[in-house]
């Protein structure tokens, strides 16, 4: 598939720049990821998204963490790409969904009923059973489908746009929220954006993080905000690291922001305490 080809092309180039040791490390990690799944070494951390007009927390993003018994914490960027290439991503995403649904129930028991978003790989949408499995998990959890939001990149549509759009339609019709992640970094953004039944666009942190130092980043961020608004989408800026960036995003009419300037991702119990501290 087109996506696989360009994706692996990119990986190949980045591996060339690294040492042999690094790819060996990746192979080893992948073997260990199966035991991580079996031994409960995976958990989710949560980062809040805040509405810039009202300062209210409008949702949480679930971010995967691997606590390796020997190597310590391993960042998702170090194992998710290999899990995507090998197909292990299917069991990994299933696990992430199980963890997220359990955590959402705990959040609600604490009076925190904001939507939680989960990252879904492009590869997951190529699995014809994916949407059904996901909807069944939500049904069994007894939670309202709107408690769960899915974040995915435009590359999800590259391989089989019609098939993927059908799956996305089923998910929105069931009541799930859908968000385009890393907007501006993928391929053919605008053409796909028009066809996707999404409600939210997330501007990639690559544009937001240093936008006050780099005018081009700021222009891209500003243009993405107005594009999203013209299309009737909610827009969330990622990677807002300080108060000045948050203020500028608010001036541009960005709906919400996420970033170290608000809070870092944190374990479930810590995010519950953080939310309670804010009076939630
Ligand atoms: P992402 O979906 O774009 O997630 C945002 C990343 O930016 C997170 O990194 C988060 O910790 C980081 N971040 C948030 N605010 C700031 C900020 O102000 N400054 C900076 N410098 N960084 C910030 P993390 O947790 O390391 O995740 C990296 C990527 O791994 C994610 O990027 C996502 O693509 C992937 N990922 C994480 N969890 C999952 C998962 O459960 N499933 C899948 N398929 N992918 C995941
Ligand atoms: Ca994300
Ligand atoms: Ca992102
Ligand atoms: Ca990203």
Automatic annotation (TrEMBL):
Name of the featured protein: Diguanylate cyclase
Part of the intact protein present: 282 to 561 of 581
Residues in EAL domain copies: 26-279
